[in-house]
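User: Predict the structure for this protein chain, please.
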Amino acid sequence: QPQLAESGGGLAQAGGSLTLSCAASEGSIIGYAVAWFRQVSGKERDFVATTSFNGAVSFYADSVGERFKISRDDAQNTVYLQMSDLRPEDTAVYYCGAATFFRNFGLKSAGASRYSGWGQGTQVTVSS
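Assistant: Here is the predicted structure, written as structure tokens:
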């Protein structure tokens, strides 16, 4: 089970872009699905996007639609989240977690409790 560390957050204006990185500080992401979730203070951790163990399958929350793109580079032991057309409602702390899924069964609907290896998160703030 890899231990992950998120980075790349910051302040952006509405309509702008940011790219987040999720790197394994311990272990390897090879063989693991990796997902991004986000959390606003006092609320639950919400699903954003996930990519399968080989990057062939990805799913996104309706709220991010085609604005966000998840990708992985196993050689760099890193998963990325490219965020464009940012909106103030995208403001949150972003976390990444890893999990294994047999033949991707359950990948689309898995919640935060299914994943582990969370880092400290990275804050994304979008101003209007």
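The two ends are 39 Å apart (CA to CA).
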